[in-house]
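Reviewers asked in the last cycle whether our approach scales beyond single polypeptides. To address this, we selected a multi-component target totalling 445 residues and predicted its structure end to end. The input consisted of the following lines:
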Amino acid sequence: MAYIGKSIESGTFSVLDTSGNTYNGSNTTFNLGSQVGSPAQLLVSHDGVIQKPGTDYSLASGGTQITFSTAPASGASIFIVEISGAVGGPLDSDLNGSELILDADGDTSLHASTDDQIDIKIAGADDFKFSANAMNVLSGSTLTIDSGATIANSGTATGFGVALDDVSTGDAASTLATSAGNITIDAQGGDTDILFKGTDGSTDITALTIDMSDGGILQTRAGVGFPATQVTSTGANVLDDYEEGTFTPTWSSDVSVSVASGNYGRYTKIGNQVTVYFGAVLNATSPSYYHMTNAPFQSNIPSGNSVGSGREYGHTGHMHVTYMSDNSTTVSIRRYDGSGISNAYLHGQITYPTD
Amino acid sequence: MTTENKLNNIKINEPYKIITVACDVITKDDGGVITKVERLRETFCPTDVITNKLNALNLSDDDKKVITDATSNWTDEIKTAYTTYMDKIE
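The resulting structure, written as structure tokens, was:
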């Protein structure tokens, strides 16, 4: 009975062919006719005496040659047996499609049952597959990047789209950026909107809703803001500014004038259009006109005027005309018929273009 | 509750260097939290004596200086041109 159990399928004890070597008492290094990994993988007999690996001989030329510590004498009888893969040496055998079983119960292995393909079988099932220029994590298997590890992409990564409802909440500032191309946010479900939410203190705020009803309605929670200093747009369909506020009118006339009471001014600016509302009770004696010289924005009315209206109140109720010329902050107020103003209780308004 | 006026922006309008000024009237509650910001404007023309208007804005000295410095654009030529322009307005 030469062998108990499964016969050796790969790796053998083989006597190396060293017939080409000439022992002359001076040469110490000889070809092995094979390549081995360590001196211990060789059984060397020198004139019937077993040589001690590492002491009596060593390997040279990457394991393809043997170097004796003492030059074998001329006519020495030397044979060398290679103890190869079957007992732990380099595996240099063709498995020819057979499995290389790795674990004790025989259900974890490497095999190449398909030509040009390496399969890693774990617990009885193929989990990973290598083929020419490709590696596959097979269905049911998971590729996990452990904490502290990194997966880097220096080439082209495709198919890494993540279902948006799988993205978990992060704990740091995040940036959504591209180096080229648009960023599209597309709510594809039926009757879905796009909402922008944040937190003010501890209160959740939905600041902006893009409501897809009626083809898309932009709805903000607290209004639309513009920069304090207008960034002027030349686009015909672009609203580039809005402002509302107050001012205190400054009055002049062709006669001495002063404010008695009730001096007020309000304005609203939408884009390049300003509407001013003003009024006062003025002290003046028979003025032909009044000027309110400090409208909040200078007019821009090339070759024209803006015209508004006003009235005396409390007494006669006469109508007035308000008007403004180009490059001006002065609003002129006269009676509709050009007659002298007898009552200095005024209200007026005018809308005019500005820059 | 406190109220503070701050200069927001200033514009010097060509050709007469009329200065239009925007201020923020900032209201804070007792905890110092801003509860309201309103816009107050004033316009300074080249023939104006600006002191009273400027003081009425209740700005800091630094903000006042920005406006005062802007009036340096009112050269005699500008004042004359503006006066001529105003005389044409009836």
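Chain B has one domain: 2-89. We regard this as preliminary and will revisit it once experimental data from Aim 1 are available.
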